[in-house]
Design goal:
heterodimer, A: mainly alpha, B: alpha+beta, 2 domains, four-stranded mixed β-sheet, 8 helices, 6 strands, 19% strand
Amino acid sequence: MKNNLQTEIIEDLTRRKKSSREFLRSLSPDEKIAKLVELQERYYEMLKVREAGGGRKIPERWQKWYKARYEEKSKPI
Amino acid sequence: MNSKDNIGAILKVLEEMTRAGIIEKYAIGGAFAAILHYEPISTVDLDIFFFLREKNDSPILSLNAIYEYVNQKGFSFDHEFVNIHGWLVQFVEASHSALWTEAVENADTIKIKDFDAKVIDKEHLVVMWLFAGRAKDYQKLAMFYEADFLDEAKLSGILERHGLTEKWNKEKWRFRGDEE
């Protein structure tokens, strides 16, 4: 019984993963870029939480990314 | 203007650089190109492969023309990235590599915003990742291989021309999963 339940859960997760990836692949270039922006934000948040929790420091490249996106963005062009 | 809209602004800057005679041709490469061809993955920067209009004979390639231009425009930069409208852009001069040159010359055109952006095609990207051979390159290679959308004949031709067929055969276990 337990094995059947585990198999169902795995199959359900596999189905959801497949459908999520199919959705992402079907997006237009502009929509994919918007998703990238979301991914960058989430990834940076994760790095920040890891550092705050005593883990590894935020990598230098991501520190530069944050600075570029939020601190120097309004610099007069 | 939010971050995703700024991509149009970056493409405009690249067009301006081309018109100003600083760069001759350019194409988006790296993970950003992978996203445009396939699915969103996280990446910190936007790689631009380009040819300088004015070549210099120095063994050390000077990107001064690029830095002077971005400085004039008020974009900040360091030795690695140029910050264009909140995006980290890495400029990679492509002419010293036959593979990169071919990749830029044969780039696809993908519509982004109102721009016809030049983007390195899937098969050249795959070969460039194979050549670079870092763990993150093999991850992207595996992703493209799994997608089953590569033109095998085109891929074989690129591998052959750039002497990478043997490396492909030797390393394919890394990205072909348990197929073999």
